[in-house]
Amino acid sequence: NIPLFNKIHLFSDTMNPIIIITVFLLICKITLDLFLKTKAGFILKATGDNEQLVLSLGVNKDLIKIMGLMLSNALVALGGALMAQYQGFSDVGMGTGIVVMGLASVIIGESLFGRIKALNATTRVLLGALVYKLAVSIALTVGLAPTDLKLVTAIIVVIALSLNKNPLKIITKQKIKEGGVLNASNTKSAQSVQ
């Protein structure tokens, strides 16, 4: 446990901490969005989706993985530094359970807001984090014990995953299996291919 009470830090000023955190959040989000639109950003996303494709393009996949780890560790370090300054101390157990919250935020954001094409991935994750924290605060307000938050997290993730089931995907796959001529909107062009 390292106290920071006697040190001058970012939140020792009279400015509202929410404004400071929001500024950092917006800077990180905009920077990450701009990076993910570059060639290196596209390759990083492609490595996460299909490692063999990136390898077949002649890109060193290990170097891309290291770049992704560097980027994520920089964001984690920034978050830890902000949290330590906000709380006034640093402790080894400060980040316990944060990975579960992060995964839940990604799952909730993609499940609830994945169909909205106007939102990019970082916005969906931020909205998922807000929904997750809102659900946890409602659970605590209702009177659930803080030890039951793992159960609340599991229930939230299961609900988000069940909302992600899209019956249109099943119908579309079935139509593809049935054949193209019967379901084509322009049957003349479909028959000319045969």
Automatic annotation (TrEMBL):
Transmembrane annotation, as ranges: 15-36, 66-86, 92-113, 125-145, 151-168
InterPro entries with a match to the protein in the record: ABC_transp_permease (IPR001851)
Pfam short name (any one): BPD_transp_2
Domain of life per record: Bacteria
CDD domains: TM_PBP1_branched-chain-AA_like
Alphabetical keyword list: Cell membrane, Membrane, Transmembrane, Transmembrane helix
GO cellular component annotations of the record: plasma membrane
Chief site of localization: membrane
Membrane topology: Multi-pass membrane protein
Subcellular location: Cell membrane
Molecular function (Gene Ontology), one example: transmembrane transporter activity
PANTHER family linked: ABC TRANSPORTER PERMEASE PROTEIN YPHD-RELATED-RELATED, BRANCHED-CHAIN AMINO ACID TRANSPORT SYSTEM, PERMEASE PROTEIN
Protein name from the UniProt record: ABC transporter permease
Lineage: Bacteria, Bacillati, Bacillota, Clostridia, Eubacteriales
